[in-house]
Amino acid sequence: MAAFTVRVTGLRELDAKLAALGPNLGPQALTSSLVYAAAPTVQLARSLAPYDATRKSGKHLRDQIGVTTQRPRNQAGFAGAAAGYARIVPRAPHSHLLEFGHKIVVGGRAGRLRRLVRGRNRGQVVGGGTVVGFVKARPFLGPAWNATRETVLHRFITRIGEIVSRVWRGGSGDAGQIRKAA
Q1: Taking the model in full, what pTM does it have?
Q2: How far apart, in Å, are the Cα atoms of 53 and each of 50, 91, 135, 136, 140?
Q3: Residue 33 class from Cβ within 10 Å (0-12 exposed, 13-18 middle, 19+ buried)?
Q4: What is the mean pLDDT of the chain?
Q5: Tens digit of pLDDT for each residue in 113-138?
Q6: Residue-wise pLDDT tens digits, 27-76
Q7: What is the distance between the alpha carbons of residues 22 and 34, in angstroms, rounded to a whole number?
Q8: What is the C-alpha separation between 62 and 92, in angstroms, rounded?
Q9: Would you list the domain boundaries of the chain?
Q10: What residue ranges in 30-145 does DSSP mark as E strands?
């Protein structure tokens, strides 16, 4: 999948300070703020995603772009797992091919014919495919992020500020419902 990761430093420290303000803050406040902040990027990415109006079945790529709050399996034990997490991701398995372009190969994998010497498929012959063309990249997520990153940062800071000020004044500071992507 074509997913862009944004590294924000200081979230663990912010998480610790928010947790000190009350039990309703912390990871939920960070995550809901990140989801809220990502909305303009998701909206623009959906508008830039390739769309075929003649398609009769299945979901369009633009309808599968969203925000997930679930970490990838390889980051499940990440040291900063307590900090908030959100990621903009197209859920279509072919999205990276559209975002970055790809070769059109017939007759197997591209490259010379060779026999695998290690792993589960040891002895299998692979390769020998011929590249017959190239599908040009049609980026949608990268340009959306580049166009909206300042807005996303401003929305995130504003939302965290609202939550902190609500808690400071004695309100619940409830970060709202966090919807987890399936």
Answers
A1: 0.67
A2: 10, 20, 20, 20, 17
A3: buried
A4: 77
A5: 777 777 787 777 777 778 889 989 99
A6: 677 888 889 999 999 999 999 988 888 888 778 888 889 888 877 777 66
A7: 19
A8: 9
A9: 1-95+139-182, 102-135
A10: 65-68, 87-90, 102-106, 114-115, 125-126, 130-135
